[in-house]
Design a protein that fits this description.
The termini are far apart. The longest helix is centred in the last third of the chain and has 49 residues, at 48-96. The protein has helices spanning 17-21, 26-39, 48-96. It has three helices and no strands. 0% of the residues are buried. With 103 residues, the protein is an all-alpha fold.
Length: 103
């Protein structure tokens, strides 16, 4: 038997920081959904609207996560290009500056 140490006002277990930092992925979601479907009462099945809402919400979160990854990649590329342009600008400025040789 597993014991839970802390609960919140809704009698839900409070997760430790280590557990709370772990994220569920698509495989975890699909595993939970199929388990939920297997374990449901056949005379009182899960509401179709609730199931579709869960899937839509997960799809939205997955899309936002993918978009975040793409935006990070774009930001890294822009940063690299900016650094390259800065190096080129400083190199060309140094090349066009006349040297004082004392002639």
């Amino acid at each position: 038997m597993t014991s839970l140490s802390a609960v919140n006002s809704r009698n839900l277990p409070v997760l430790s920081k280590d557990t709370a930092q772990k994220q569920l992925g698509q495989n975890d979601f699909l595993r939970l959904m199929t388990t939920q479907l297997k374990e449901q009462d056949p005379f009182n099945p899960v509401d179709n609207q609730a199931m579709v809402a869960q899937m839509a919400q997960f799809s939205s979160v997955a899309g936002i996560s993918e978009m975040n990854t793409s935006l990070k990649s774009i930001a890294e590329q822009i940063s690299a290009q900016t650094a390259l342009l800065t190096n080129i600008k400083s190199s060309s400025a140094a090349a066009t500056t006349p040297s004082n040789t004392g002639v």
